[in-house]
């Protein structure tokens, strides 16, 4: 990244302290996983009664639902990868590991908030007895080992466009797993997914605010960055997932998420449209020719994505449903 762009983030340190850090919640006001799972210090009978009640609640949820929830949980569990990715970004990375720079403070505290998501989902899934924890743990180990490359090229303009998009994507998918848990008879799991979704929303607001500030200070640079990320397509953070068995695991998991309506191609287009509105991209002015071309591309993209998706759906309908085995649910088959 050119030095003058690094300078932009240096000059925004005061602003970040005042306008970004308040999106964090003080630890003492945060929920913890233990608030939402059976307390192991209860007398043993009471503890097992609560676990039994948890299992009764999850009994009616279908295997498809568990595949999606497991995939979401594994995505959360690869958190070291996301912190690493943010710490590749010039001008905002944590230079010492405990840097007082507000960008670094944000990244560490964001990571610490996020860390509760995987912990909570994992414990709940463990207690449910519905999933193969050993295969799930293997998948997490493979995934963290594989990492990810979202194409952000050490550039925080690109990095914060990516995180704005991603946090909204997780807000939507956890919101949908909450709704499905409620419909499937587990209000506690619904509350868990909903609580996680509200963290994601808060994080989305912080990242979107950073991009909004960049659009104000450097409209061409920020607009070109948005177009660049959209051209590359926003890859899902867990796209390199593998369980040691299925080389197309991510595609299969995404297929189930799409079918259940937890996260779909339509959501992708919706997020793009939402961010275009949130950032006022259609009315953005004061850009060079390059910026205006980027604007034109981004603002016309959502209808094109939807059209392509309609055609893909059409093709999918004509294809015969095929069975896919998921190790996470003891190699049971689901139809895709
Ligand atoms: Fe999360
Ligand atoms: Fe998140």
From TrEMBL:
Q: What is its subcellular localisation?
A: Plastid, Chloroplast
Which residues of this UniProt protein bind Fe cation 1? 76, 114, 117, 200
- Co-factor binding comment: Binds 2 iron ions per subunit.
Keywords, alphabetical: Chloroplast, Fatty acid biosynthesis, Fatty acid metabolism, Iron, Lipid biosynthesis, Lipid metabolism, Metal-binding, Oxidoreductase, Plastid, Transit peptide
Write down the required cofactor(s). Answer: Fe cation; Fe(2+)
Q: Where are the transmembrane segments?
A: none
- Keyword Protease assigned to the entry: answer is no
The record's section on InterPro entries has: Fatty_acid_desaturase-2, Ferritin-like_SF, RNR-like
In this chain, Fe cation 2 is annotated as bound at 114, 167, 200, 203
What's the family? Answer: Belongs to the fatty acid desaturase type 2 family.
Q: What is this protein called?
A: Acyl-[acyl-carrier-protein] desaturase
User: Which organism is this entry from?
Assistant: Fagus sylvatica
């Amino acid at each position: 990244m050119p030095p003058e762009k690094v300078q932009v983030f240096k000059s925004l340190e005061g602003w970040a302290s005042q306008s970004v850090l308040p999106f964090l919640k003080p630890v003492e006001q945060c929920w913890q996983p233990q608030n939402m799972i059976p307390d192991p210090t209860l007398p043993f009978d009471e503890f097992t009664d609560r676990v039994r009640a948890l299992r009764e609640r999850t009994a009616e949820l279908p295997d498809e639902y568990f595949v999606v929830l497991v995939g979401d949980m594994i995505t959360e569990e690869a958190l070291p990868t996301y912190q690493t990715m943010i710490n590749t970004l010039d001008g905002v990375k944590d230079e010492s590991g405990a840097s007082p720079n507000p960008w670094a403070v944000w990244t560490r505290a964001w990571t610490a908030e996020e860390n509760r998501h995987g912990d909570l989902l994992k414990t709940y899934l463990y207690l449910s007895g519905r999933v193969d924890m050993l295969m799930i743990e293997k998948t997490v180990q493979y995934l963290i080992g594989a990492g990810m490359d979202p194409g952000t090229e050490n550039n925080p303009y690109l990095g914060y466009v990516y995180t704005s998009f991603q946090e909204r994507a997780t807000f939507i998918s956890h919101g949908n797993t909450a709704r499905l848990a409620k419909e499937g008879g587990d209000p506690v799991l619904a509350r868990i997914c909903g609580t996680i979704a509200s963290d994601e929303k808060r994080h989305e607001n912080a990242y979107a605010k950073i991009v909004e500030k960049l659009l104000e200070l450097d409209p061409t640079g920020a607009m070109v960055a948005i177009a660049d990320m959209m051209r590359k397509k926003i890859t899902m953070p867990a796209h390199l997932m593998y369980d040691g068995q299925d080389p197309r695991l991510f595609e299969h998991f995404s297929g189930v998420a799409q079918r259940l309506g937890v996260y779909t191609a339509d959501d992708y287009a919706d997020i793009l449209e939402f961010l275009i509105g949130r950032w006022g991209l259609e009315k953005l002015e004061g850009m060079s020719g390059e910026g205006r071309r980027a604007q034109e591309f981004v603002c016309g993209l959502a209808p094109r994505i939807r059209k392509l998706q309609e055609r893909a759906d059409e093709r999918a309908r004509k294809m015969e449903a095929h069975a896919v085995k998921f190790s996470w649910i003891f190699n049971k088959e689901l139809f895709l």
